[in-house]
Design a protein that fits this description.
This protein has a 7-stranded mixed β-sheet with strand order 5-4-8-2-1-11-13, with no helix packed on it. Strands 15-16-17-19-18 form a 5-stranded mixed β-sheet. The protein has a 4-stranded antiparallel β-sheet with strand order 9-10-14-12, with no helix packed on it. The chain contains 19 helices and 21 strands. It has helices at residues 2-23, 245-251, 255-266, 309-316, 332-351, 353-377, 399-416, 418-431, 439-447, 452-458, 460-465, 479-494, 507-515, 523-533, 541-554, 560-569, 573-586, 591-600, 606-615; strands spanning 44-56, 61-72, 78-83, 87-93, 97-98, 101-103, 112-117, 124-130, 138-141, 153-156, 176-184, 190-193, 206-216, 222-225, 228-231, 236-240, 274-278, 287-288, 293-296, 324-326, 435-437. The longest helix is centred in the middle third of the chain and has 25 residues, at 353-377. With 620 residues, it is α+β, with helices and mostly antiparallel strands. The chain has 4 domains: 3-225, tricorn interacting facor f3 domain (Immunoglobulin-like); 227-318, Zincin-like (2-Layer Sandwich); 356-477, Neutral Protease, domain 2 (Orthogonal Bundle), CATH 1.10.390; 517-616, Peptidase M1, leukotriene A4 hydrolase/aminopeptidase C-terminal domain (Serine Threonine Protein Phosphatase 5, Tetratricopeptide repeat, Alpha Horseshoe). It binds ligand BES and zinc ion (ZN). Zinc ion is lined by residues 313, 317, 336, 339.
Length: 620
């Protein structure tokens, strides 16, 4: 008897809650309009995704179903998703009711809106679909393009608006959802996502994932390959192709220490584990902060841990970006400026102030160079708050968001004192965790904590809405770089290379040296330097890229082969863009650059071909 009563109550409760759900207004916060997404989150929004995909390396296709749990405003009759070249085969509501849907016209940047018409009482939407081989987010690699050269590989890069090319989604950074996924891959392959991950292959090739914290679509990530794992500490580890694993393990031995330092500064790490996967060299970025699993370029595996600030950077995004997320891509500096600031703080905590000041000065010098370029093209793009309407959000990925953003935060720190600023930031992350932030709201929070004279000193509006770099910017001092300048001077004045006292220079000192070689240095001098320091065959990709800037300008032929190999093997856009630009400057007919690009292009991800195609007027 009791049992029946219990079940009756339970069933009425379930029915009641379902009915209630329909009538209840949306639970989620009102979101700002995002010009880079078709979705209308204030009408209908996703809250959870169950993704089921099969990976077909032969056809270069991902196919399966994305089932979303949705949250609707009263009277909502449709939900809109973003897609880019997806083949949609069917849409069902509440598992079994076939729903009408419509694909809008294709925009070159935004793709197509997928509108699903909702019957009353809709609480899930299941979209069956497949991606195309040229899906912008996905790079399908042949075995020759990997380190081990015997198995295919794939990885995705979703930021900023490429997630829609492999999952139909509400592709706006303000819309967060939890997810589970089941990914089926061929035998002998491991799949990993931005989620709780397996650490070894299984027989069936079916992998299950869970991401219990809500994330925006740009943090959806998948990689599949012959991948192995090695733990580094309690919460950290590294994934890589087996042949690369030990080198990666050695390079990242300080990861756990970075994580502990980061937590000490801004509070507990919210995502459980923090692992890094080192991908094949075509990965278009240095790193990508996919939650729980940073995707990284192998170009940071230098053998001497000299380029691991990139790990600090991606780790820092676990707070700035992944926890508190830019509302739209116009607020991108909130993600990247904060992250560079936090990266420097982690590096300072682990390696000392001398070290982090070298990084800061390199970033400052890079900023000055880029500022000139951006000013000439579109001076408005030198503001922190961007206006990217009608443009690719990729246009906002410049040193402004990163390095001007960093300097602004450092200016605040220097004005109000580190202790106060740290308290402010700790609260900021705690109070806004798993939420969006826009520039205006951040400034409001900041202003409420500052004294009048501090506001007058900082001049917030000048930094955020003004062009260029305000005069009151912090001044960065690096004793180590001063010494490099001195050594450079005595070498140049004496003309004797043996007077160049490079003692135990680190990679960063060498970079400062190479970046500041005298304008118009001739081939003989370059040859002498090369004889002594072997830059042309450096194992450090940052050194190589900086050196090629000089050698291309000077027409130093001895470095040409190495430079060409570099461009063909490495797909990291940060290295490609300046190198191709230097080639074009040297040979405005673009023939030299185009000949190399022809060979290199098949190795690049769409993010990189997008940029280089434009530079070289490359047509299909
Ligand atoms: N999130 C970015 C990469 C990104 C930004 C991808 C915008 C797509 C659109 C990542 O955290 C990053 O900043 N990577 C840098 C690392 C560096 C600053 C240490 C990179 O790849 O160079
Ligand atoms: Zn970043």
């Amino acid at each position: 008897m009791n049992r029946i009563l219990y079940f009756t109550c339970l069933i009425s409760f379930v029915i009641f809650s379902c009915q209630n759900k329909k009538k209840e207004p949306m639970k989620s916060q009102i979101l700002a309009n995002d010009v880079h997404s078709y979705s209308q989150p204030n009408v209908a929004r996703v809250v959870h995704l169950d993704l089921k995909l099969t990976v077909d390396f032969e056809e270069k296709v991902l196919s399966g179903t994305a089932r979303y749990t949705i949250d609707l405003a009263e009277n909502a009759t449709q939900i809109i998703f973003d897609t880019y070249d997806l083949n949609i085969s069917s849409v069902f509501v509440n598992e079994s009711e076939e729903a009408k849907f419509e694909l809008g016209t294709k925009d070159r940047i935004l793709g197509q809106a997928l509108t699903v018409f909702l019957p009353e009482g809709a609480h899930t939407v299941s979209i069956s679909y497949s991606s195309v081989p040229s899906a912008k987010a996905v790079q399908w690699l042949d075995p020759e393009q990997t380190a081990q050269k015997d198995k295919a590989f794939l990885f995705t890069q979703s930021q900023a608006i490429l997630a829609r090319s492999w999952i139909p989604c509400q592709d706006s950074p303000g819309i967060r959802f939890t997810y589970r996924a089941e990914i089926t891959v061929p035998k002998g392959y491991l799949a990993l996502m931005s989620a709780e991950n397996p650490i070894e292959m299984n027989e069936k090739g079916v992998y299950n994932f869970n991401m219990p914290q809500p994330i925006p679509s740009y943090l959806m990530a998948l990689t599949v390959g012959d991948i192995a794992f090695k733990p580094i500490g309690k919460r950290c580890g590294v994934y890589a192709e087996p042949i690369m694993l030990d080198r990666c393990f050695n390079e990242f031995s300080e990861m756990e220490e970075m994580l502990l330092s980061a937590e000490e500064i801004y509070g507990a790490y919210a995502w459980g584990r923090y692992d890094v996967i080192v991908l094949p060299p075509s990965f278009p970025f240095g790193g990508m902060e996919n939650p729980r699993l940073t995707f990284a370029t192998p170009t940071i595996i230098a053998g001497d841990k000299s380029l691991t600030s990139l790990v600090a950077h991606e780790l820092a995004h676990s707070w700035s970006g992944n926890l508190v997320t830019n509302a739209t891509w116009n607020d991108f500096w909130l993600n990247e400026g904060f992250t560079v600031y936090f990266e420097q703080r982690i590096m300072e905590a682990v390696y000392g102030r001398d070290y982090s000041e070298m990084l800061a000065l390199l970033s400052y010098q890079g900023l000055l160079e880029e500022l000139e370029e951006i000013k000439a093209k579109n001076p408005k793009d030198t503001r922190l708050k961007l206006e990217l309407d009608g443009r690719d959000p990729d246009d906002g990925m410049s040193a402004i968001a990163y390095d001007k953003g960093y300097l602004f935060l450092r200016k605040i720190e220097e004005t109000i004192g580190r202790e106060k600023f740290d308290t402010f930031l700790r609260n900021y992350f705690a109070e806004n965790a798993f939420q969006v932030m826009d520039t205006e709201r951040f400034l409001e929070l900041l202003r409420s904590k500052l004294e009048k004279d501090q506001l007058a000193e900082i001049q917030i509006d000048k930094w955020v809405y003004g062009e260029g770099l305000p005069d009151n910017h912090p001044v960065i001092n690096s004793e180590k770089f001063v010494n490099v300048d001195k050594a450079m001077k005595s070498w140049i004045e004496s003309g004797d290379i043996n007077r160049l006292d490079s003692g135990s220079w680190s990679t960063h000192e060498w970079l400062h040296f190479i970046n500041n070689l005298p304008e118009g240095i001739n081939n003989q001098e370059l040859a002498k330097l090369d004889d002594k320091f072997n830059f042309t065959h450096s194992g450090n990709t940052e050194v190589l890229a900086a050196w090629f800037q000089v050698t291309i300008k000077a027409g130093y032929a001895e470095a040409h082969k190495s430079m060409e190999d570099f461009l063909v093997n490495v797909g990291r856009r940060k290295f490609l863009t300046p190198t191709y630009k230097a080639l074009i400057e040297r040979d405005p007919s673009k023939e030299v650059a185009r000949n190399i690009y022809k060979k290199a292009r098949p190795n690049y991800h769409s993010v990189s071909t997008g940029t280089i195609d434009e530079l070289l007027d490359w047509k299909g």
